[in-house]
Design goal:
The complex is a heterodimer of chains A (460) and B (456).
Chain A: H1 2-13, H2 15-34, H3 51-60, H4 67-91, H5 108-124, H6 142-153, H7 158-161, H8 172-176, H9 190-206, H10 214-218, H11 221-232, H12 242-245, H13 249-252, E1 274-278, H14 280-288, E2 296-299, E3 312-315, E4 322-324, H15 325-331, E5 336-340, H16 351-368, E6 373-377, H17 384-389, H18 395-406, E7 414-417, H19 420-423, H20 446-455
Parallel strand pairs in A: 1-2, 1-5, 5-6, 6-7
Antiparallel strand pairs in A: 3-4
Chain B: H1 7-23, H2 29-44, H3 49-68, H4 74-105, H5 114-130, H6 139-147, H7 149-152, H8 174-208, H9 215-246, H10 264-270, H11 273-284, H12 293-312, H13 316-342, H14 344-363, H15 367-377, H16 392-411, H17 413-421, H18 426-447, H19 450-453
Helix pairs in contact in B: 1-2, 2-6, 3-4, 3-5, 3-6, 4-5, 8-9, 8-16, 8-18, 9-14, 9-15, 9-16, 11-12, 12-13, 13-14, 14-15
The chains are: A alpha/beta (460), B mainly alpha (456).
Chain lengths: 460, 456
């Protein structure tokens, strides 16, 4: 009786305290329940991180406790579809229907990986890397591809809904030539596939036969050939290219030396038909580079290679609504596309996973802007102090990615430019006089970047 | 762990400590508080805890010496004074040594909370000497006063007499517990949801480079910084005072809606009150205050404001800042107060215009940068911009307008007092809980996730 009175008193006197305790406990329970499922990728140390902070972090990534139910659904569906596809792979190597690419050669191991990937996708939304894990994005038409993205961000299993029928399965001999020991690699480098295809397409425009795969396809020749056929359907409207892209890539590599272009100095009018895509650094170029009258800028703080096409932030001049970069690029054709992304992603994934996504983005850009000169820009470095102090945002990590980005250049319609040549000191760190926060150029120094761009024009 | 808005403090240290504190029988709660405070400080400063414990012990010994000699006899008076001087020299010397070291090696060499606990120690010695503390406290109580974790990091500089260190004086009730939690939550929201957000604007302006900031943006930045500083410190003070109340201590007022002041002098009577009253009681009044003629008053004010400047930091800019405040306050005292009192609106404009400008002296330790920033605020005085984007203010007003508006509302005294008065109303309880969890969310995403913090 006494205890009850105490409790009554407590409820009466301390409503806020009680409310905080109850809500705190509920959040803790949610964190405990999801610790091993939806929150399993978050670091948890019992001593310093309370369980409820997992829930908070999850909410920060757009993942709410209620999603746990969907997570369970998701894993069940995946297991189901994995079983299905495994059965299929037992039956025959070349699938008739192409219903699930992951079915091409699914091992138990990969099933696990795919599940994990899906879980990751459900947590981090767009950071999911479907190609790597064998999701059937290769042959999906662009419309469906975006649907696929949307599905992923809705945390639904991406396997079953998308990809049906859109894939042209490569002939068995080509599939067999897939390099790398990993099983199920047949569906792997969608990006390369798409890229080489479009490069080939660009090759047609210029009358050069064969695609200039160069470095891009060098590390995955087999896949390129494997997927190029499938990828053709992506640009189905431009049917004339089919013939070229279906040529074996062995012929393509011979064409790399001919017809390349060199950088030359241009005037500001050069940017009249240019678009710049990037994160806060490119945003700074927009605000302080003095190009805002000439070029378009699709730039936003914290934009990454993973959300560059999904984030809605480009203002549609006709309707005033916010649209995605992809939609904006469908509306207008540019002569030059500049791309600088990568610093925000330094803490996410590996250089390999980053480059897979990067190549996909480049391929899509090529597809959307077939006639544009594509400038892939090296990620601007940070200062020496930051370089030494920061375990993630340092120049070692940046250079590693830049080296890979540079390999995308083909000297014909994709060019690598590195503004670090202009803004870094002799040690290769961002000149500390040019910045206050060790990362961004001060407003008055964006002109250096502009001058650099003016000296690195390509005229075809 | 030493940051009140941090997750470790909120969900590890605080609940465990509160539970242990209230389970402990009241007679032993000072011991619990002392142990908790040592754990708290050691978590933040594993090495300087030695310095803290040493100076606590030293001050206790010296205070006992002062107490040993009764008043009345002249030789005893002299002895008392000698011991007091010794204590003051050691305390002030310690502070001075570390302040000078920090000028050369940066703030990393400054022990956590040194400026605050040394000021507590000085006030303690002076109060013992003056007999304001009637009886020499036990070592445990002295140590609790100096070290209590709610106040060790950044004050408030409570006086020994203000705190209920003798156990009979301390009162516990559910009502007080609830009251403390309300103040704590209000402070948490002020710090995390306003100060931390506005600080991003200030960082953005720095990243642009002051040369390229448009004049409207420079003013927006100055106003935003003025609020950020206020919310940061007021928020902290509310949390600290709230923690004190939860533990049975009285609420210590450190800020009294300073931006509602109608003169700069009034502003400083409402801003960081415990520091201002410390300077008044232990420097200004002992020097003679304002009772010995205009000239001496001005001299005393000059000393107080120079010391205030130096106390805030070692840089030249802080001395400059103190000097400017001194000039403004003297000007008010000698000439302007009549008009400012007569026309309240004039007083408000005067305060709201001048204070952001004085904060710009406070904010910039680099004098050249300070000059550039002030030049951008007053471009007619020769602060030509480089590569200025005249539309920048629109962008940042859009990005931070919500926080700035909320900040302006939160500066209005009536808003806070209304909520304070009605804190038991269900709507206010719910609102406070929402603020609390939003702050926790903000704190998690700022602290635990470097990628949220470092967005490029």
């Amino acid at each position: 009786m006494k205890a009850i009175n105490h409790l009554k008193n407590f409820i009466k006197e301390c409503p806020l305290f009680l409310l905080l305790i109850v809500s705190g406990l509920l959040l803790t329970l949610a964190g405990a329940a999801g610790k091993n499922s939806i929150y399993k990728d978050y670091p948890y140390r019992a001593l310093t991180t309370p369980l409820l902070s997992l829930v908070m972090e999850g909410i920060g990534d757009g993942l709410f406790p209620l999603d746990m139910t969907e997570y369970r659904e998701l894993s069940r569906t995946q297991r189901h579809s994995a079983e299905l596809s495994q059965g299929a792979s037992d039956e025959s190597k070349a699938l008739e229907k192409g219903e699930t690419v992951s079915g091409e050669a699914v091992s138990q191991e990969q099933t696990a990986r795919a599940e994990e990937a899906a879980a990751q996708g459900s947590i981090q939304g767009t950071t999911l890397d479907p190609a790597k894990e064998g999701f059937p994005k290769a042959g999906v038409s662009s419309e469906e591809e975006r649907d696929g993205e949307a599905l992923i961000s809705k945390k639904l299993p991406p396997f079953t809904e998308s990809g049906s029928g859109a894939i042209i399965i490569p002939p068995p001999d080509q599939a067999a030539s897939t390099p790398g020991g990993l099983p199920g690699n047949g569906g792997l480098p969608l990006a390369e596939g798409g890229l080489s295809e479009t490069e080939g397409a660009a090759g047609t425009d210029k009358g050069i036969s064969g695609s200039s795969t160069g470095n891009v396809s060098g590390n995955s020749a087999g896949n390129v050939s494997g997927n190029s056929a499938g990828a053709v359907t992506e640009s189905g409207a431009e049917g004339s290219r089919d013939r070229i892209t279906q040529e074996p890539p062995s012929g393509a590599s011979e064409g790399t030396d001919s017809g390349t272009y060199d950088f030359r100095t241009v005037t500001e009018a050069y940017f009249d038909d240019a678009v710049f895509i990037g994160d806060s650094r490119t945003q700074g170029l927009l605000e302080y580079g003095g190009l805002e009258e000439r070029a378009d800028f699709f730039s936003r703080i914290s934009l990454t290679i993973y959300n560059v096409f999904t984030a809605r932030f480009v203002k549609d001049e006709e309707t005033g609504k916010k649209i995605t970069v992809e939609e904006a690029l469908m509306k207008k054709q540019y002569g030059k596309v500049y791309l600088m992304l990568g610093i925000n992603e330094l803490g996410t994934g590996t250089t390999k996973s980053f480059m897979e996504e990067y190549k996909k983005v480049v391929a899509r850009l090529r597809e959307l802007q077939p006639d544009a000169i594509l400038f892939v820009e090296g990620i601007m470095r940070v200062t020496g102090t930051k370089n030494e102090e920061d375990p993630i945002f340092n120049n070692t990590n940046i250079n590693e990615k830049n080296n890979e980005i540079a390999k995308l250049a083909d000297g014909k319609d994709i060019f690598y430019i590195d503004v670090n040549d202009a803004v870094c000191d002799e040690k290769g760190n961002l000149n500390s006089e040019y910045t206050v926060d060790d990362v961004h150029l001060k407003a008055q120094y964006y002109s250096i970047w502009k001058e650099f761009l003016l000296k690195h024009g390509i005229v075809r | 762990m030493v940051v009140f808005s941090g997750i470790e403090f909120l969900f590890r240290f605080l609940p465990i400590f509160l539970a242990v504190y209230y389970i402990t029988p009241p007679r032993y709660r000072n011991t619990t508080l002392l142990i908790g405070s040592i754990v708290f400080y050691a978590a933040g400063e594993p090495y300087f805890i030695v310095l803290l414990v040493f100076s606590v012990w030293m001050n206790y010994i010296l205070a006992k010496r002062i107490c040993f000699y009764e008043t009345g006899h002249r030789w005893k008076e002299r002895k008392r004074k000698d011991w007091l001087m010794m204590a003051l020299l050691i305390d002030a010397g310690l502070l001075a040594v570390f302040k000078i070291l920090s000028m050369f090696f940066g703030n990393a060499v400054l022990p956590l909370g040194l400026s605050f606990y040394i000021f507590k120690m000085i006030s303690f010695q002076a109060d013992i000497y003056r007999g304001e503390i009637k009886e020499m406290p036990t070592f445990k109580r002295t140590a609790v006063y100096f070290m209590m974790f709610p106040q060790i990091v950044s004050g408030p500089i409570m006086r020994y007499n203000e705190g209920a260190f003798t156990l009979e004086k301390r009162t516990y009730s559910l009502e007080k517990l609830e009251e403390g939690i309300w103040y704590f939550s209000a402070g948490l929201g002020t710090k995390v949801l306003l100060a931390d957000r506005l600080s991003i604007l200030w960082n953005n302006i720095a990243a642009i480079g002051y040369e390229s900031v448009s004049t409207p943006l420079a003013w927006l930045g100055a106003v935003s910084y003025s609020m950020q500083l206020y919310f940061d410190f007021w928020g902290y003070s509310l949390m600290a005072a709230g923690l004190g109340v939860m533990l049975g201590f009285p609420f210590i007022i450190n800020f009294n809606h300073p931006y509602a002041a109608r003169s700069v002098s009034e502003f400083w009577r409402r801003w960081h009150i415990t520091l201002g009253s410390w300077f008044k009681d232990y420097v200004y009044i002992p020097l003679g205050g304002s009772r010995e003629g205009k000239l001496k008053t001005v001299r005393n004010l000059l000393i107080v404001w120079l010391l205030t400047g130096i106390w805030h930091g070692g840089g030249l800019n802080f001395i400059l800042w103190g000097l400017v405040l001194f000039l403004l306050i003297v000007a008010e005292k000698l000439m302007l107060s009549r008009w400012l009192n007569q026309y309240p609106l004039l007083g408000r404009v005067w305060v709201l215009f001048l204070l952001p400008v004085t904060w710009m002296l406070f904010a910039h330790t680099d004098l050249r940068q300070m000059a550039v920033y002030l030049g951008r605020m007053f471009p007619f005085a020769g602060g030509a911009g480089v590569a200025v984007n005249s539309g920048d203010v629109v962008k940042y007003a859009g990005m931070f307008g919500g926080y700035l508006l909320a900040g302006i509302v939160w500066c209005i005294p009536g808003v806070f007092t209304f909520l304070e008065k009605n804190r038991k109303h269900p709507a206010v309880v719910l609102f406070t809980a929402v603020i609390f969890w939003l702050s926790v969310y903000g704190s998690v995403s700022m602290g635990n996730n470097p990628f949220m913090y470092l967005k490029f």
